[in-house]
Amino acid sequence: MYVCVCRAVTEQHIREAVQDGARTLKDLCLNLGIIRDCGRCARCAYECLQDARGGTRPGHGKR
Ligand code: FES
Fold it and tell me: Could you state, in order of their start, the residue ranges of all structural domains in the chain?
């Protein structure tokens, strides 16, 4: 499913970005360019971010 239509970003792109270290909407904005145009994807992107962070524990070695 497309999360950001303006930038053709899907849930899969967000999951991959999270696996690569994205932790916030700002990270996703910088990495994928979402929210920069119309901004309508912000809520959905946030939900996908939370889902991706909860579903994949990258094991960052955080203390
Ligand atoms: S849908 Fe993401 S900026 Fe428009």
Answer: 2-55
